[in-house]
Design a protein that fits this description.
The complex is a heterodimer of chains A (63) and B (132). Chain A has 63 residues and is mainly alpha-helical. Chain A has two helices and no strands. Chain A starts with a helix and ends in a 13-residue tail after the last helix. The relative contact order of chain A is 0.13. Chain B is mainly α. Chain B is built from seven helices and no strands.
């Protein structure tokens, strides 16, 4: 499964959860959902892009 | 315990919170928040199911790793699904699986989200809610 798709699904689930938990009213819920979803997606892509500047290390050990 | 203390003991809220922990979103359902309960149930089951599908780590305590205890508490937050998967189905997760890390995040998030729902149920049952 695509990592980008999984990230989008995760951001959507978190967005739906917190908009239902923290807001009443469709309009406010939609607004918060958009903020969380876009914040997570754009933030993750931005952070991923910034990580290009760091050298790659050895593979992480399998727990 | 005095009579006054007995009457103020939040038995109903405790029972609802316990039910909310065992069965994700069931507390909201019992409190009459049917639509929200449905939404929460969908989110929770999707996150947990996807975590299992991706063969993520369903945390369990590991001796010498203090953080694993914390993570186990978080994962247990999802209630019955955790125990069914762990003890009923013997689920462990597959570290070599491609989706292992993502699956772990989904499983842990489902547990943490349900813990927040338990707190929300506690608040509603004690009359502290509906400000927003």
């Amino acid at each position: 499964m695509s990592h980008l798709l999984l990230m989008a699904v995760y951001a959507a689930l978190i967005g739906v959860f917190f908009s239902l938990l923290w807001r009443r009213g469709r309009r406010e819920q939609t607004r918060l959902f958009g903020q969380i979803f876009l914040g997570m997606m754009i933030g993750a892509i931005l952070l991923g892009w910034l990580m290009y500047f760091f050298p790659t290390g050895p593979a992480a050990p399998i727990p | 315990m005095t009579e006054a203390a007995k009457s103020s003991f939040p038995t109903r809220a405790l029972l609802l919170a316990a039910l909310a922990w065992i069965l994700p979103s069931f507390g909201h359902f019992l409190l009459g928040k049917r639509l929200r309960a449905l939404g929460f149930a969908l989110v929770m089951l999707t996150a947990f199911g996807l975590g299992l599908r991706l063969e993520g780590n369903l945390y369990r305590p590991v001796a010498g790793q203090p953080l694993s205890y914390l993570a186990t508490l978080g994962a247990m937050g999802v209630g019955a699904p955790y125990f069914i998967a762990r003890y009923g189905a013997g689920y462990r997760g597959t570290p070599e699986a491609q989706g292992f890390e993502y699956g772990t995040v989904f499983l842990l998030s489902a547990g943490l989200m349900n813990l927040l729902l338990v707190l929300d149920v506690w608040d509603i049952a004690n009359g502290r809610e509906e400000k927003a």
